[in-house]
Amino acid sequence: MLTPRNEAELSGMIRSAPGPLAVGGGFTRGGVREGEPLSVAAMSGVVLYEPDALTLVARAGTPVAEVERVLGEAGQRLAFEPMDLRALLGTTGEPTLGGVIATNASGPRRVQSGAARDFLLGMRFVDGTGMAVSNGGRVMKNVTGLDLARLLAGSHGTLGVITEVALKVLPAPEATMTLSFQGHDPGKAVACMAAALGSPFEVTGAAHDAEAGVTRLRLEGFAQAVAVRAERLARKLSAWGAAEVSEGPGDWAAIRDVADFAGRAGDVWRLSVRPSRMAEALALAGGAQRLDWGGGRAWVLVPEGADLRGRLGPFGARAVLARASAETRAAFGTFPPEEPAVAMLSQRLRARFDPRGLFNPGLMAARAA
């Protein structure tokens, strides 16, 4: 495995690479990568942290746990709540900040705060020619031109190898409360979550366990204000049943990490669709189901080898194969086919940033070769 210690070493390794590189940090997020493994895990450490400016800069190989520890000591956090999928995917290693940004990994708080890419102030990366590129800065500002940092967020390491990330961070809440409703089917749950998210009570998490029929809503902030908001929200949602209100972090880490699918046999798919159509999509999908993001995202556990995209047909849901055997990935591909115009744009971007096709070739292809 190639383990560059700094950006200069990384550039040299890329320039001299004879073939594909399987780019990663801790390699905890799954996916089939071709080529010689290249890990940025040795490029680690917080470079700059200014709590008063809500700004943190860290190298890509910095463990997420270290970033969260540093922020926690100052009463701050990563607002986009990055998930840890090691239990679900059966992987080991240490999740890194670069991996979070490369996959745009965002948890339940996305419905209120935004995704990982929304907190990017800038980044450094090395492209497929070995050239180091810096984009953005260390303060939030509006600029013209191409925002390369947000372009690379979610590209799964196929456009460049991220070496450093600058992020906006936010204060951690003083208190957390969860409202739970029993007996909802997906349609009723989505309606309940939509009403909650459309309220003025600043819901920071809206999820549903379709097997148990439990819908959960999260409120965060100052303790007294959270208590008042929880009481008022429960009254507003009384048409969906009596809410059970609990204090503390609750089950949100498990919801974030889809923890109750860990160790259960079968393939796990991730669906994205408009919340108003999610119940219809899940009726076609079958299997065990978990909803997040107010019904905009669903995790579905189905028997191994099941063609979930075939079940959904032209419905319009974006189905990503999150966990499966190599044979299933070879049959269906991790990601769904892109529209022709989007596919052409993706090809042009990869040709520009990675002209030799070195970085994670085939990882984001609709169907493995």
From TrEMBL:
Keywords: FAD, Flavoprotein, Oxidoreductase
Residue ranges occupied by any FAD-binding PCMH-type domain in the UniProt entry: 1-172
Pfam families reported in the protein's UniProt record: FAD_binding_4
Stored SUPFAM superfamilies: FAD-binding/transporter-associated domain-like, FAD-linked oxidases, C-terminal domain
UniProt xrefs under Gene3D superfamilies: 3.30.465.10
Annotated signal peptide: none
A Gene Ontology molecular function term of the record: glycolate dehydrogenase activity
EC nos: 1.1.99.14
EC primary class: oxidoreductase
PANTHER family tied to this protein: D-LACTATE DEHYDROGENASE, GLYCOLATE OXIDASE SUBUNIT GLCE
Name of the protein this chain belongs to: Glycolate dehydrogenase, FAD-binding protein subunit GlcE
Phylogenetic lineage: Bacteria, Pseudomonadati, Pseudomonadota, Alphaproteobacteria, Rhodobacterales
